Records
---
Amino acid sequence: MAALGWLTPRRRSATARSVLAGEASAEAARKNQEAPAPVAEAEEPQFPVLGDEKAAAFFDLDNTVMQGAAIFHFGRGLYKRKFFETRDLARFAWQQAWFRLAGVEDPEHMQDARDSALSIVKGHRVAELQTIGEEIYDEYMAERIWPGTRALAQAHLDAGQKVWLVTAAPVEIAGVIARRLGLTGALGTVAESVGGVYTGKLVGEPLHGPAKAEAVRALAAAEGLDLSRCAAYSDSHNDIPMLSLVGHPYAINPDTKLRKHAREMDWRLRDYRTGRKAAKVGIPAAAGVGAVAGGTAAAIALSRRRR
């Protein structure tokens, strides 16, 4: 053994300890030569790309940018301002309970929920709802913005890219939130208005699921964006069509189905909740009558997120 070589008589001036050190060094060198060199991990390319004018970011709102449903909080504000009567609360609460317990979006119940929701704003002026939306943002929404997601959006803005909210909430509410966060704008469900007054009808259908993907596709075409260079962020498996459109999909605070899909597709995940089951859309028991208004609001959302 090389380590015992210094015991063999030698005619040289080196000391025994020098010989031992030299032979040990030679042996180590040979081992290192035979062993494959460690492969350095490739550095992750910078993202978002600074100055990429063909790129933009699309953020789902509920439980992605903001804890809970925006329309839930909006409903609380409307109830506080006496937009609802007691009989409306009972009907809306029943519709919300159906969605949560049945676990399916039955067409008849969905139509009933849409009609009930639209009846609330029918006859009201668009400008009135926008002003109320500003007040409700300060009352209920500002403190519920996820700092982590907000930082992601800011990174895109800092890179010179446009950032859009994409939500089933009414576009007026989405626009208020986008403006208050300093984002570019918002895609949302459009309620028909004539002369600045809501008619109680929708333009098309709620911006939910595949409709979100179509809205993003249309906006990208109008803005001259390259979707393969764009990013999209969502918590819900309902938004898989939108996430699949872009080159950089992110699952944020994902539900079970989206988490599974994201792992299968090797999408990036971020979770800013303190618990895996946190921030579900629902009716908190401690919220009292305002919580029932939240059930109303969930019906107004025109689309339900199942967890």
---
Amino acid sequence: MYGVLMIDIDSTALTAEDVSLIRQAQVGGIILFARNVTDAAQVRALCDDIRCHNADILIGVDQEGGRVARLRNGFTPLPAMGRLGELFNQDPNRALDCAYDCGYLMASEVLAVGIDLSFAPVLDRDGISQVIGDRSFHHETQAITALAAQFMRGMKAAGMATTGKHFPGHGAIAPDSHVAEAIDDRSLDEIMNSDMQPFAQTLPWLDALMPAHVIFSQVDNKPAGFSKIWLKDIIREQLNFDGVLFSDDLSMAGAKAAGDVSARVKAAIEAGCDIALVCNDRVAAHEAAKAAQELPYPNQKRIKTMCGQIPAWQGNLESTCQQFDYWQQAKENISQTFFPTQLDSKASANLELKDPTSYSQ
């Protein structure tokens, strides 16, 4: 049975404490961070070990490209999605082809090391947000929709389910919800006609959504991830979306309005989330696991749709990825387009910038 919690682990190999948490009934997922990664073989061994202790578990990662990439050493570099948007302004057809290639390339290398899914793509508009920026494809909804649909086609072709974030849009809010409360005071009509459009228009390609830790004050006084209005009334009933709803990390500052971590987990699940993420806080993970015992299990059929098509390990990343028919071509296309000298100066600078999703409690 897949449980309602997704937690993290300490390092590059499981500790006894990690194992005790993974074996708890309501732990249904593990999310990996850069601290859990040295190289491809180590990640695959770690994922295989996790599944030895809990066969019904999803393993996820944030492998968006650009600054947000947990898998780096030995993996093919991916551009920030904003660079696809820049290319789209100059050559739309080429940008759309590259978006497909990025989705396929990312998914195949993530699956190869035993990870089910990357929480991607970002469907937020590029606006004033301190944390979104070039994680977004573009500022125009039509461009985001076109590029994101191609990116998700690539992901699905490689065997990975898709997760759109951060519903209904984080790009118009300056504060970073990782470290501060974020409030959007626009009307529901304005949000639905702008920021929400990339989500609504790509629903056929979406297997999961992750709501933002943003309070849309004209709609509800709770962050979207704790709001029955957003999750049940709008996502489930109005948009008729039947995919998985992942909470964003409940350790983020934007989630603390709901109370302690036990209250946050309960609030997220009761509002309509299927799985609640609790990361970067081991004490909170233990508290969340205890609180989750009182909660019902999520819809198992729905959760299973997120399981990746993980190939047999062939001893190294390249040999394993050769099992994906289009991996080599996608890799060459992306490398030639965005990294023609392995890492051009712009790409190198982009990858060296601080990860906007890194934060301390």
